[in-house]
Amino acid sequence: EDEFSRSSHSNPGKSLVNGIKTNPASNSPKSSLPVPMGPPVYVDLAYIPNHCSGKNTDLEFFKRVRASYYVVSGNDAANGEPSRAVLDALLEGKSQWGENLQVTLIPTHDTEVTREWYQQTHEKQQELNIMVLASSSTVVMQDESFPACKIEF
């Protein structure tokens, strides 16, 4: 009998995740086991997960994933996309980097949330060396020029 079967029989309602017994009712991303601290990861371009929703992205993301460019693709206010809390977490995370690297935020849609956030935090953005492109901005990559909102992966 394999480990999964034994744990299911002896502990009904529990399962194994990466070899650790868990309760399926508490298997949400926010209640998962803590991720050990490690050095930050530096990348050129990072897509903010889940359309910049607060469901999966928080301050820890911006402390660990340090990008020259962050793409914000959220355009669904009913689902909190983009999330003001995530945009604020970018400011807080960047303030803890200890180095003043240039960061560019690329919103793919012009939303009320991003406009308000931009206006209300503009001084902090300048202080932290964060530039926000307008949704009508143009990006040049490898001799090709296109609107910023057309970035594809």
TrEMBL record:
InterPro entries from the UniProt entry: MAP1
Secretion signal span: none
Biased composition (Polar residues): 20-31
Record region (Disordered): 1-35
GO molecular function: actin binding; microtubule binding
Any GO BP annotation: dendrite development
Cellular-component GO terms for this entry: cytosol; dendrite; microtubule; microtubule associated complex; neuronal cell body; synapse
Superkingdom, natural source: Eukaryota
Protein name per UniProt: MAP1A protein
Provenance organism: Thinocorus orbignyianus
Gene: Map1a
